[in-house]
Amino acid sequence: AQSVTQLGSHVSVSEGALVLLRCNYSSSVPPYLFWYVQYPNQGLQLLLKYTTGATLVKGINGFEAEFKKSETSFHLTKPSAHMSDAAEYFCAVTFDRGSTLGRLYFGRGTQLTVWP
Amino acid sequence: DAGVTQSPTHLIKTRGQQVTLRCSPKSGHDTVSWYQQALGQGPQFIFQYYEEEERQRGNFPDRFSGHQFPNYSSELNVNALLLGDSALYLCASSWDRGVYGYTFGSGTRLTVV
Predict the structure, then answer these.
(1) Is B90 part of the contact surface with chain A (CB cutoff 8 Å)?
(2) SS3 content of chain B, % helix, strand, coil (to 5)
(3) What percent of chain A has pLDDT over 70?
(4) Among B56, B105, B106, whose Cβ lies nearest the Cβ of A103?
(5) Do B100 and A46 touch (CB under 8 A)?
(6) Closest CA to A115 of A81, A87, A64
(7) Strand A105-106 vs strand B19-24: parallel, antiparallel, or unpaired?
(8) Which residue has the higher pLDDT, B100 or A7?
(9) Chain B residues with CB inside 8 Å of A5's CB?
């Protein structure tokens, strides 16, 4: 069965510190992986995605993530946190084949707090 | 270029009533999916529409139904509302059945009292 697990429902960092948000997935076919960000009272904005090719993907606002098949992980990082990064982050997986084509399976989300 | 537009933004309904939510996809997109996001949770897939047909459905009761029009816009209908239906309903559109990612609207906040 397909699923996404985000370790840590809340992460707090100081401004300028490294941001690391963890995501592990479970799937029986090759996954396509996404990170979305959600600001209060807004929809989801795509940060970055992995489909095929290079396993290290760069997204908007200085975020990047690395697909590690052996670890079934897709952790999100940013070298230096900014106050504006405070938001809810969701990891999601989908597939390019089968009965769940294009259906997004989301994790429960990680709330990122950035302290000044 | 407008992104995904949802209406209304907020809605308050009474238990047992029916509600219709509307979505206009991003220009050039032909696939629309609907998600329910309860407070403090990740979005849950309701269904996906492509070529005016429901292509996939998540684990939601038949009280949840939808429609896609020839211009690719979509509606989500919920009958016999329950308190537990209170949530943010997100519409997402894509040009590739969603495989390469969706563009999300800002959502409709439904409160059932």
Answers:
(1) yes
(2) 5, 50, 45
(3) 100
(4) B56
(5) no
(6) A81
(7) unpaired
(8) A7
(9) none
